Amino acid sequence: MTILIKKGILTDGVSEMGAAKDILIEDGYIAEKGAEISQSADYTIDADGCLVLPGLIDFHTHVFEGGSDFGFNPDLVLSTGVTALVDMGTSGSGNFEAFHRAVSARTMETAAFLNISAMGQMGTGLNENLDPCLVNEGRIEELFQENPDFLLGIKVRISKAIAGKWGTEPLKKALEMGERLEKPVCVHVTDPCVDMDEVAAMLRKGDILCHMYHGKGSTILKEGRVSQAVWEARRRGVIFDAANGRTNFDFSVAEPAIKEGFVPHIISTDMTKATVNQGSLVRNLPYIMSKYLSLGMGLPEIVKAASYTPAVCMGRADRLGSLEIGKEGSITIVKRKSGDFIFSDAAGNKRHGGEMLIPLMTIRRGLVLFDNNELDRE
Ligand SMILES: [Zn+2]
Q: If DSSP states are collapsed to H, E and C, what string results for 320-357?
């Protein structure tokens, strides 16, 4: 099976920065790129003027459908250009097997962080018990041994309302286990139980600070500027993920930070059952990416944060996240549409954007999984 995509604007933020080229997918892999490929193919797609991106990777979602109030069917977002995603700690050691079975039955490529709490994240108002005595270390170690490629790291939430009297103890436990398992820790920091500087100082190279632009309680800003401790964490190799969500993004934090150059390494949605394809807060990954266009980030940088960098953090950059020859033939074709578009944040602020990324076609491993019928295909 061969697919030839003609005249698209190739952009991955790594090897392609926006030149118009043809690209050929053969037997599920990217086989050739060039100014003009004349070879005939099973399908020829005319992508003139459209963006040809690597399949998008949403690094922070909740897809334990049926096992958590947050969980949605991950195949719902294939039509938004997402071809792989990460479940960020919806399951813990107590319900991981049910979660793994549920996502394995889906088309979407999935990997996961395991919650430090055995119960995982059950849904709004059902916060995980973070008593360190209840962390089943033996079972967690076993699960990481049994699922070396699927389980990427440990998730922990240290919001005041969740960590409660345990404070940073659960984070310390997660970091200690991360050290032992040689895996990263992803920490949720909205309204953190201690100053953000203290959290940032605890994280190691490769650990992930998610909800970097949240605006509740202590934030990454001190007197309107990104704090020294947060910058220091970034220099040390800590990964900053926007992980938007309904309650984890505030323009009054994002705007000054981005102006200073404190852009996200990863742009993800933190999508749940309540937000998948809904509203002006989350909706879908191309919608969130469009918001960063309006915040002044360049397209290649945005695409890199929504495909290549997540692929690296998944340990799958040998196969996913770029348009290099030999990589998996997972491609998202998108149109840049001009207009007046509204984006909202958790504090009720609204901003207008002038461009929206519209998903036209999703190809995964050489197979067209979504087509809005706009592009000519022979
Ligand atoms: Zn989340």
A: CCCCCCCCECCEEEEEEEEEEEEEECCCCCEEEEEEEE
Top CATH class, 2-54+325-335+358-371:
mainly beta
pLDDT (0 to 100) of residue 304 = 98
- Cα 336 to ligand 1 centre (Å): 28
> For residue range 38-91, what is the model confidence (pLDDT) as tens digits?
999 999 999 999 999 999 999 999 999 999 999 999 999 999 999 999 999 999
Strands 43-46 and 2-11: parallel
CATH 3.20.20.140 range(s) for the chain read 56-313
Q: Ligand 1 centroid to 320 CA: how many Å?
A: 23
Direct distance between the N- and C-terminal alpha carbons of the chain, in angstroms, rounded to an integer = 14
Ligand 1 centre to CA of 88 (Å) is 6
Q: How far is the CA of 266 from the centre of ligand 1 (A)?
A: 14
- In angstroms, what is the span from residue 236 Cα to ligand 1's centroid? 24
Q: Where in the chain is the domain with CATH 2.30.40.10?
A: 2-54+325-335+358-371
CB atoms within 10 A of CB 331: 29
pLDDT digits (tens, 9 = 90+) for 193-251: 999 999 999 999 999 999 999 999 999 999 999 999 999 999 999 999 999 999 999 99
Lookup result for tokens 């059902």: 126
C-alpha of residue 15 to centroid of ligand 1, in Å: 30
CA of 185 to the centre of ligand 1 (A): 14
Domain 56-313, architecture per CATH: Alpha-Beta Barrel (3.20)
